[in-house]
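Input chain follows. Return structure tokens only.
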Amino acid sequence: MKVTVKNPMYAERNRYAFYIPEFLTYEGDRVPAPKWAPDDTVCLTTGNLNWPIRMLDSASITSIDDKTVVSAKVESKNKTVTVEGSKGQKYVVTITPEGKTCTCPGFGFRHSCKHVLAAN
């Protein structure tokens, strides 16, 4: 299987002193994705014992076996809410299927805060 993907570094290509290609091509056999990987992950064998599989985001795939792939935009299940702190600061609470996170310093230490509780 030959898969061509959009290079995520291409948007920042001017920051590098070396050439950054717009597309990358990988070859290998398709294997099942690990249970912890996102549902839209495509995995290919690499032939390298130290790195046996390559995980590709299906949204970045442009062609498979030289056939163009049109990917539909996946609706994000994440929701962001801006919550004002007690001293007027604004914090962003992100709500995902896995849980809630906050950009305040307290959340970094305690993994919970009043902003997460206030966000719905």
